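Posting this for the archive.
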Amino acid sequence: MHHETEQARIWSQIYSEGTKKQSIPVVKAWQLNERMYGELQGLNKQETAEQYGKEQVHNWRRSYHVRPPNGESLEMCLGRAVTFFKEHIEPQLLSGMHVMVVAHANSLRSIIMYLDKLTSQEVINLELSTGVPMLYIYREGNFIRRGSPVGSSEAGVYAYTERLAAYREKLDETSEGI
């Protein structure tokens, strides 16, 4: 399940290639889109900091409750992403299916907040690495995150196996042409 971006499409293809399956269903969901930054959408961080001040921009980007002008707060992003997760992904997990979620940082941060039962203060400090898989096992009604910090030459902070880390390398190779 993912938002339709070139990277998300590539990730679904890599997964298909890696599992040697002919077809893996891909569900596109706007609820997993990146947080909307409103009037700041499309501006780079430096331009925005020059216009509004570095501290204000940091507050908009990292606050849980505060939203940029005509944009979404992380709390609002959580509302749609977690609702989608509960309504569409959890039922599949309950039925025994394996689900891969490919999404943007803030929608993933929101889902992780739900899964790991993080506070609003903890989630704003959560850093995610682009393209590094996180594995959760759903067992007896609980989500259990697998993996632990490892060296830079190993699988990655949240990767379960070195094979999963290979997906990152493949993504990097494929993304160079984008």
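The helical segments are 6-19, 45-52, 54-62, 74-94, 105-116, 120-124, 162-175. The longest strand covers residues 135-139.
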